[in-house]
Amino acid sequence: MSSAAFVIISIVTLAAALGAATLQKLMHATLSFAVTLVGVAALFFLLGAEFVGLVLVFVYVGAVAVLIVFTILLTRRGVETHRGFNWGGAFLAVAVLGGLSWAIFNTQSAAVVAPRVRALTVARIGEALMTNYVWPLQCVGLLLTAALIGALVLVMEEKR
Amino acid sequence: MINQSIDGFLPPDVGNSVDQIFVNAKHWVLTWLTTAPGWAAQIVSSLINIFALLAVFLTLFALMSVLERKILGRIQNRFGPNRVGPFGLLQPVADGIKMLIKEDIVPARADKLVHFLAPILIAAAAILALGIIPYGRNMTPFTIDGGILFFFAVGSTTELAVFMAGWGSNNKFSMLGAMRAIAQMISYELPLIITVLPVVMAVGSLTPDRIVAAQAGYTFGFVPRWFVFAPWGAMAFVLFFVSGLVESNRTPFDVPEGESEIVAGHMTEYSGFKYATFFMAEYIGMFAITGLAVTLFLGGWHSPVHALEFVPSYIWFFAKLSMLLFVYIWLRGTLPRTRVDQIMNFAWKFILPMSFTCVVAAAVWHYAGRGLRGWLWSLVVIAIVYTTLSMLLDTRRKFAPRIYRFAE
What we know:
A: mainly alpha, 2 domains, 74% helix, B: 14 helices
C-alpha cells in the first residue's frame, strides 16, 4: 500500500511541478507550486518524518506561498506578455539538476541499505536542536529578529 | 492487523462500557474484517473515523446555526426562527434545501478553476484540523506525534484558500476582503501558536492525548489540574480564545466581511452551495479552534468534579465545547465590529507581548516547583508585564485632532 501511495504522490507532485514551470498565468504557477510543496510534505509523511512534513506545509504553504502570491499581486500590472524562451532560467535549472545529481551519486549511503534508525519523534528533534545544534538555532533566531526589525523599519511612518 | 498508532483507537480495556460504547462499536465492526488483508481493515477503520467525525460535526453545525439565531434573537429581544419544526429546530434543513436549489453564479471574468477550488480547500482544511482532537477516552480520530503542529499546519493553508477565493473571483471587493482576512489571520496566528507553547512546555509533548492525560487528577482533592487554573494557563487561555475568535473571523473581529464597506469580503462572488460551503467551513473552523482550547486548557474530556467521573468522557468534552461556543455567540450579540487598524494594533502591541509573557511565566512556574510558590511567582510575572504594558499603551493622555491619511 505504501508503494502505491508513493507512486500516486510522486505523480501528483511531478505534475504540479511541471505545472509550476509551464503554466501561462503566474498566479496559476504559484498555486501549482503550493501543490508541489504539499506533495513533497506527503512524501516526508510516507517516510515517517512527520515533523519535517508538517513544518514544510506550515512554513512553505502557509507563509512562503502566501508571500509569493502577494508579491506577484502587488508588483505586476496587467497581463503577462510572452517574452520568448528564457535561456538564463534553463541554464540555472540544468546547473541545479547537475549539482544535485552529482551530490546524490557521490553519497555513499544511497548505494547501501539504509540503517535502522529510531523513530524521528518531535522530542528527539527538539533535543538535538537544544544540545548539538543550539548555536545554529540561536544564529537563525538572531537573523529572524534582524529581519523582523528591518521589516518594521521599512514600514515605519516618518514623523514630520 | 490494525496499525494502532495511525488508527488511534486503543483496544477497549476500560471497564466503563457507556464511556467506551463508540470505541467498542468500532471494534465490533472491525472484528468482521479479521480475515481481510491489513490495508483493507486500515482503510475501513479510517473511514469509520471520518464518517463519525463528519456526522457529529455536520449535525453540530446545523444545530449551532439555529441556536445562534435563537440566542441572538433572545439577546436582541425578538423570537428568532420559530416556524420550521418544533421551536424552529428544522430551520437548518430548510436552509440547506434553499442553498442547494439556488443558482450557482460564477462571474464571467472569474478564474473558473480557482473560484471553484477555493471553498473546497477551505472546508477540507477545517475538517482535517478536527481530526487530532481527543473527543473522549481513546477517542482521537488520528493520533500523530506532532498533533498540535498538524492543527496549525493545516490551518495555515486556509490563508492560501482565502486568497484563491478573493483572487479567483476577479472582483475588487473580494480581493480587498481576502487581503484583510489574510493580514488578520497571519497576525493572529503568531499569538495563537505562542499561547500554545506554555502548555507544550509544561507537558513536554505535542501530542493532544498526552496533553489531556497531563491534566488528569485534582489538586487538594477538588480543584481539577487543568492548565486554566494556573495563572499562565488562564492568561494563555484568554489570549488563545481571543486569537481564535479572530482566526475564525467572528464578531467583533469580522472585518473581512464588513457589509457596509466590502459587501461580503472574499465571499462576495459566491452563491448557492459554494457560499454554504464557506459558511460551513467557518463554523467547522470555529469548532476546531474551541475544541483545541478545551483540549489544551480546559482538561479535554476530564470531568471537573471527582464525583461526576461516571459521566462519559465525550459528554464532558462536548459540554465544555458548547459552553465556549455559547460565549462566541454571546460576544457576537454584545460587541460591535472593530476597525482594521485596531485589530492589528491589538495583535502586535498587546496580544503578542502578553503571549510571550505566558511562556516566561510557565517557565517560572516550572522552576519554582509547580506548586503554590510557582503559582504565585508566575502570577507576579504576569501582573508586572500587564501593568507595564497597560501604562505604555495608554492612549487617553494624548488625544489630538484626528488626521485623515487616506481619505483626503
